[in-house]
Request: fold
Amino acid sequence: MRRATTELTPAARAFLAAPHAATLTTIRPDGTLHVTPVRFTFDAAAGLARVTTRAGTRKARNVAAGGPAARGALCQADGFRWVTLEGRAVVDDGEARVADAVRRYADRYRVLPPAPPDLVVIEISVDRVLSLNL
Reply:
């Protein structure tokens, strides 16, 4: 395993650009972990990962309940190759932020995400990257 860092190798960047799904881990108010499959985008230059979801989902509620200390981890895996992006997480329902997340999602996955009326974006400011076999 590579040491925890915020630096990405070219192979890790290429891997994160592929349209794979990942798991998002958040922390419930009772301290237990919630892990769910998601599609996401990662802006390496800004160090920002984004997940679009409904405001009422457990993942969004977990992040909102965590306040300024909320954290999230996205793990994209393919066999024994994987990258985990960890960092501070926030939920944002701002129109511009949600629209940007939707555009990035469509660019990566070549399809628009679901568009419920309560669409929000979970943004993770990545401060740690772990990887294996990349």
Q: What stands out?
A: Residues 95-109 form the longest helix (15 residues).
